Every structure is written in structure tokens, then in C-alpha cells.
């Protein structure tokens, strides 16, 4: 084979291939060829900055988790369109990259020290009101981040927040705008209503009506396409009974965990920052002045409040709270752990500037007994073995299913059971059918049409399935008898709504044209009068309120304006607007301030949205 390649490389085949490559380079350039392979790992490129596929996958997964947490038991995974989810996630990543580029171009920055303080203050990382390194590691690990990755992500969020704040905070509104908005917001309206209720009982349908509708809309009455699946399910929990942990391993792991426990130290500090405006010597001189004040008897907290340039701690007398190793700047941490209780350090230089550090308190680690941790350690060690075993068997299942013509053989080899699902449609359902990946696999050409076994599908982190189609139920025309009841219900509802709308529209036209005299009782029912109604009037249907406050003012006394609105249940409400009143009293200062903040915030958000759209319009964005 190799000799054949060598021989042919001197012949017309090699020359043809070389010719094609040369032509391709001439047409597209070297960059296009090599970028093709490099862009296989990227989802998009924004002004030359790549967005990796891994970042897109993580963003899509986070959106899925957020939806699940927000909707709770109402979350239906089968309703998620994976393509739309990824498109939305990619759109968000592109917007984020544009905002980061804008922040860097504007020289926005967030100091590492400020970032540390932000992390220490986040309640998600606290236990009993104090920062917990273990809790911090646990939370960011669940989010899929390392410490460095999380810090980088948080810094980017803070930079984007600075850009947003710089636009939102710069927005302003005039006194005239505030007054005009207040007049509209506090406006009241006098009106009356007549409600015409849809009456399905008055609708008479014939068999011919139903048949005609069925014939005209036959394509709407097809049975759903469904599949019955065979599947093999692999559960992680089944492996726990297959693994054991020796007593020596438990003891060794206990010693490791105990050894990793570290004391927590409560620090306070006075910071004089070194930056492009303050030199190292100037900052050190200011810190020396603070040191003299301490030597003269002033309290550390008072001096910190007056001179410290750390906005996160100065107001608290420099108190940084409790933290363990690995949180602070190395030079800062070294000095802190050399102090005794209530002792103040000599001046310490860190990457942020010059510090005086005081040790306020020490919390020694509580060392748990072996007995109290044994069950947890055993579970953790078993979990490690199970994880490895689960991955190995999942791969074996996938390989066996790929090579087999059914699921019986792979199931037998791995001691699993072939199960059968209920009929499942493309819209999904409960249990197995609630998983979008299951639906995509079941209705894919390979599985549905070619009869292949699927790849391994992860239902959740602890469950994997491989499936195949046992039965394919194609859409069929439903008989009239099967859909007669639903057609009758639909036609009855539609005709009842049409009848009540025609009745209301006729009355409305007569009132507007003056052909129907306005009287306290109209069409057999009295007008329901409401005076001084507000936009948030209690007991007023939102659709009625919206229509009411969109109506033009009456042109004069005794000349009402009429309109109508159809409610969700099909009822029609005729509206008679009698008058509009606006507040005459002077607006209170606190109300003025409230309206001003609201309008400025809304205007700021509009400015930010316009800025974001401008960035996108000018950017060079390429999606792969």
C-alpha cells in the first residue's frame, strides 16, 4: 500500500491533487484553509476574538439550569428546542464579548483586591454569615469553574456592570417630563360598561356544519406520529454494591481531610493604593502618617475609616472578616499569619499598594472524629470508583449497541433489561419522553428510518440509555367520528363569540352615530358606572383597563366616547368614557423623586440598549 502511494505520487494523481490545492490557495488564501480547522473548536468570532464551543455548551447548560430552577415542577424539558437554546446562548455570549471589548477600550478596570472583597461578601459563599472556602469551592465546582475561571468570569461581569452603570447613571429627565408623566400616571377616568356574554347554548349546529368543517380542515385532524421504543437503562447507583473500600483507605483519606483543615483569621487593614496617579514613595509616606496616628493612640478602626482607600472595608474600620489561606495577596497573607492577636504589622507592600494589617481574631479549625466522617469518606471513595466504572460500562454499552442489530445482546452482556416505552410523539411527554435528546434520537433518520440503535444518551448525570424504535406509528387521517366532539366544541365557541361580537358592534355603531339613543339601560341591562378609576383600579380586568386608558378624551360635557374590548372568555365589553381628570395639586417632593428615578432608569436602559445595538452594528461577527 505504501509503495503504491509512493509510485502514484509521481504520476497524474499526485499532480491533480497538487493542482487542486494550488487553485484552492489562490482562490481563498492560506488563511481560509488553516482557519477552517482552527475554527472547528469555535462557535463564533467577534472582532477577531474567538468564542469557543466549550463556552457555548456551558452557557447553554446554564440557561437550561436557570429555566429548570425558575419553573420548578412546571419545567418541561421536552418543550426546549435545543437549537433555539444554543442560538440564544450564543447571542448572549456575543453581546457579552462586545461589552467586554467596549469596557477594555474605555479603560475600565476592577482591582483584584476589589474582586476579593466581592467574593468574600457574596452570601452564596458564606456559612453562618462568614466566608467559607469549602463552600466557595463547592459552589463554583457545581457551576463548572475552577477558582481562576470563576475569578475571571466575575471580573468580566463587574466590568460589564461598570459599562452599564456608566450609561444608565448618566441619564437624566427634565422637570417638565416628570410633571407630564405624573399627570398621566395619576390620571383618573369616569366610565361605564355593558357586558355581553357569549352564550354557547344558543348556538345550533347541524351534522352538515360539522362535516363541512371537517372536510375543509382535514389536514388538522391527523393522528400524531408516534414511536414505541425499546431501551436499555444504565444507572450509576447500581454500581455502589459492586465496589468496596478497605479500612486502610478510609484511615488514609481521613488523615488527608484533617490535614487540609486550616484556621480562619479575621483581618483589618489600612490601604494606600499605588496607581498611575500615586507613586510608590507617595503611598508609603501616607501610610507612615497613618502609622504615626496609631502610635499616638488613635484606634485602628478610626484611622482606617479616615484614610484607607479600600472602599469595601474602610467604612467598617478596615475589617475584612474571616478568611483562610489562599484568599489574600501572598505578601498580605504572609504578614497576616505572622501576627499575634491584636498586633499591627509593619508596612506591607502588595500588588495593590501599601498596607497596615491588624489581626482581630483567630478561629481554630474544628477537627471531626474518624467515626463522624467515616460514612462520608466511604461514600466519597466509593463514588470515585463508581464514577470510573460507570464511564467504562457506558462506553461498553454504546460500543456493544453500535455493533448489534438489536438491544437483546448488549443487555445480556451487561446484565441489563430491555424495557419498552409507551407510544411517544414528537412533542414529548413524561419520563423518558421528557428528555429532548431522547426525542431527537428516536426521530432521527438513523434510528427511525434505518433501524439503528442510538448512541448513549445521558438522561441525567446518573442515568444513561441506549434506545431503538420498536414500532413506528405514522400519521393517519382520523375519522370524523373520532373528532366530532372536538369540532363541535370549537365551532360552538367560535360562533358564540361571533354572535356576541356582532351584537356588541351593532350597539357600538348605533351609539357612535347617534342612531341609538344613550339611556341608563341599554339592550335590557343597566350600564355599570365607575368613577375616578385609576390605571391599577382594583377589580378592573387588565384588558378593560388597557382599552379604557387608550381611549381619546370626550370632546365636551355629555359627549362620551365609546369603544369595546373582547375578553379571553369571549365576552364583549362595551365602554363608555364620560370624563378624564388629572390631579391639580402640587406633586410632593418624594413622589417627584420617585418618578424621576423611574424615568431616568428607563431612559438609561434605553440608552444602554441603543449602545449595545450600535456595538453589534459596527462589529465584525462571524458564526461558525
Task: Please provide a written account of the structure.
This protein has 624 residues and is an alpha+beta fold. Among the domains are: 175-183 and 587-623; 187-220 and 481-581, no CATH class; 226-244 and 372-473; 262-363, Chitinase A, domain 3 (Roll). It contains 20 helices and 20 strands. The protein has helices spanning 2-8, 12-38, 53-71, 82-105, 112-121, 133-142, 147-168, 175-185, 207-216, 247-259, 280-295, 300-307, 330-336, 370-403, 408-414, 436-442, 445-449, 480-513, 542-548, 589-618, and strands spanning 42-46, 49-52, 126-127, 130-131, 188-196, 226-235, 264-273, 319-323, 348-349, 353-363, 418-420, 424-425, 457-460, 463-473, 521-522, 525-526, 528-533, 561-566, 572-581, 621-623. Strands 6, 11, 12, 13 and 14 form a 5-stranded antiparallel β-sheet that branches. Strands 17-5-19-18 form a 4-stranded antiparallel β-sheet. It is flat, with a radius of gyration of 36 Å. Mean pLDDT is 85; it is low at 1-38.
Supply the number of helical segments.
Answer: 20
Structural class: alpha+beta
Strand content: 15-25%
Average of pLDDT: 85
Shape, please? flat
End-to-end distance: 37 Å
Number of β-strand runs: 20
Considering DSSP H and I runs of 4 or more, what fraction of the residues is helical?
40-55%
Unreliable stretches, pLDDT < 50, 5 or more residues? Answer: 1-38
